[in-house]
Amino acid sequence: MHLTISPSQILLYGIAIAAGLVYLPYMVVAYGRVTVGMDMNAPRAMFDRLPDYAKRATWAHQNSFETFTLFAAAALTAYVTNVASDKTSLYILAFLVARFLFSLFYILNLPFLRSPMWAVSMVCIASLFSASFV
Q: How far apart are CA 112 and CA 56, in angstroms?
């Protein structure tokens, strides 16, 4: 069986995978909430009681939402302008890897590795927009 995915499909699947990556850090937040005792009456008030790794996971989760909106717009722009290519596929894959590593490095408190992953993801977004308007 030979499975072939077109660059257009990679753009769309990339958006779906990126949406899933938004919630990856939240699983760590959920674990942190369980370990300190979930307070269903005031779930947001328990932030101060979370372990440091869970606080960082919350911030990674929030940043993922912010970045996802730009990425989805860039990928959809590339899709509707019909510029999907091997190059745009590379931007999508690099973005997904960078965002996964960004969240991981954020949770592990490795800012010297986290920041370059943020930069890579922003370059991928800019490259997708650029490919759409050239």
A: 15
Task: Tell me the pTM.
Answer: 0.91
**Torsion sign (Cα): 28, 32, 35, 37:** negative
Candidates 87, 81, 83, 94; CA nearest to 14 is 94
What are the pLDDT digits (tens) for 27-53?
A: 999 898 888 777 667 666 677 788 999
- Is 63 part of any domain? yes
Could you tell me if residue 67 is inside a domain?
Answer: yes
Q: State both tokens at 130.
A: 């650029």
Sign of CA dihedral 81, 84, 88, 93: positive
Neighbours of 79 (CB within 10 A): 21
pLDDT tens column, 50-65: 899 999 999 999 999 9
Residue 25 domain-assigned? yes
Number of domains in the chain: 1
Q: How many CB atoms lie within 10 A of CB 26?
A: 16
- Answer whether residue 2 is part of any domain: no
